[in-house]
Amino acid sequence: MSVTIRVLRLAHGADMPLPDYGTAGAAGLDLRAAVETPLMLGPGERTLVPTGLIVEIPEGFEGQVRPRSGLAARHGVTVLNAPGTIDSDYRGEVKVILVNHGDAPISIGRGDRIAQLVVAPVSRVRLIEVDALGSSIRGAGGFGSTGR
Question: Is 87 annotated among the ligand-binding residues?
Answer without folding.
Answer: yes
